């Protein structure tokens, strides 16, 4: 297995080494291919990602990615959007599940749901026009894109509680009527029970009744926003992992960004990045390693080894090291 490892910028340079220490502790045959992308590279070379980088990524089986900082340049093409499109990783999977010893923003831990976010179109189509007094962003919703994300959500629901919630704003956005109708048809065909919610009332409901949900399927921007919000239910943006999955490739990254406010201090929470390793193991079909990583994270957090934003005093490195050491004792 060939894995591209991209630290990126800011706290990406801190959380990815911690996740790699955990990956190494699993003792698997994995060839790691380091790759530099992002703001720092853009400042140095004028390009945040090159065609050659894309070729290298395509030669790997999957990618472990930290975060990148967005440069202040209106013509800048997003690294992440480029990769997601090039690798056609259309399903962005964001599990929201409580962790041991941590109380999230609402104090409850009776929820366990997954946000399945369409990852290649919607508001992030990249079709934009900037003028002095008016700007346009084209929101693209296709039947093909909606169908494949709905099929992914239904497949996942069947492995879980067999319930899908379709999140949209079709009362205002005509483009979402196509998304909603397509998702309904797919769920009917797959025999998966479903309901649908408008995104604004869904945001409210995820705070007041998160236990009601199993698999949530939605468009690109809505999924982006709801997943950061849902990370607060778990307890920190530093705890939420994600997987970008396509037919051929997979790309694992924490939900958070480069966190410039804490970068360089060694205090970023590496748990989201470490749980990306768990998701990678699931994708590879190595369920034993996936469970081991999750158990190790829960064991370490339960013992109070956690970063300052959770009220702990441990450094990024200490958390990563403690998780890796626990895994070695179980091996
Ligand atoms: P952010 O996710 O980087 O940070 C938001 C807040 O969460 C900050 O207070 C930060 O300190 C905290 N936080 C984030 N990760 C954390 C961690 N591991 N441990 C503890 N606290 C953590 O979002 P922000 O500040 O809006 O964006 C910063 C930069 O990152 C921007 O340039 C943005 O474009 C980029 N970005 C990149 C993403 C990616 O590469 N996937 C995703 C989101 C933003
Ligand atoms: Mg985001």
Provide a descriptive summary of the structure in words.
It is a single chain. The chain has 331 residues and is α/β, with parallel strands linked by helices. The chain has helices at residues 12-25, 39-45, 51-59, 79-86, 143-159, 175-190, 199-208, 220-234, 271-284, 287-302, 316-330, and strands spanning 2-8, 31-34, 62-67, 91-96, 113-118, 128-130, 135-137, 164-168, 194-198, 215-218, 241-245, 250-254. The chain folds into 2 domains: 1-89 and 235-331, Isopropylmalate Dehydrogenase (3-Layer(aba) Sandwich); 103-228, Isopropylmalate Dehydrogenase (3-Layer(aba) Sandwich). The chain has 11 helices and 12 strands. A hairpin with a 4-residue loop joins β6 (128-130) and β7 (135-137). The protein is globular, with a radius of gyration of 19 Å. The mean pLDDT is 96. Magnesium ion binds at residues 224, 228.
């Amino acid at each position: 297995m060939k894995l591209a490892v991209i630290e990126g910028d800011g706290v990406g340079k801190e959380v990815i080494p911690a996740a790699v220490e955990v990956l190494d502790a699993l003792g698997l045959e994995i060839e790691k291919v380091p790759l530099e992308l992002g703001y720092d590279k853009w400042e140095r070379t004028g390009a945040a990602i090159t065609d050659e980088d894309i070729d290298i990524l395509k030669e790997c089986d999957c990618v472990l990615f930290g975060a990148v900082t967005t440069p202040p340049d209106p013509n800048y093409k997003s690294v992440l959007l480029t990769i997601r499109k090039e690798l056609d990783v259309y399903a962005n999977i964001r599990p929201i599940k409580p962790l041991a010893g941590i109380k999230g923003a609402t104090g409850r831990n009776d929820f366990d749901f997954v946000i399945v976010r369409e990852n290649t179109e919607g508001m992030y189509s990249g079709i934009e026009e900037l003028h002095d007094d008016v700007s346009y962003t084209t929101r693209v919703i296709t039947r093909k894109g909606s169908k494949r994300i709905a099929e992914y959500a239904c497949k996942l629901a069947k492995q879980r509680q067999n319930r899908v919630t379709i999140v949209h704003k079709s009362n205002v956005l005509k483009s979402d009527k196509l998304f909603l109708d397509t998702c309904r048809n797919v769920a009917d065909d797959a025999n998966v029970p479903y309901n649908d919610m408008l995104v604004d009332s869904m945001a409210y409901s995820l705070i007041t009744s998160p236990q009601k949900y199993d698999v949530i399927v939605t468009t690109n921007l809505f999924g982006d926003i709801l997943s950061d919000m849902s990370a607060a239910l778990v307890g920190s943006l530093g705890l939420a992992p994600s997987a970008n999955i396509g037919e051929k490739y997979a790309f694992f990254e924490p939900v958070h960004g480069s966190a410039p406010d804490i970068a360089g201090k060694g205090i970023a929470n590496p748990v989201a990045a470490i749980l990306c390793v768990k998701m990678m193991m699931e994708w590879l079909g190595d369920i034993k390693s996936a469970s081991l990583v999750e158990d190790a994270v829960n064991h370490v957090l339960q013992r109070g080894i956690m970063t300052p934003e959770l009220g702990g005093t441990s450094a990024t490195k200490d958390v990563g090291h403690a998780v890796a050491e626990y895994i070695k004792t179980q091996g």
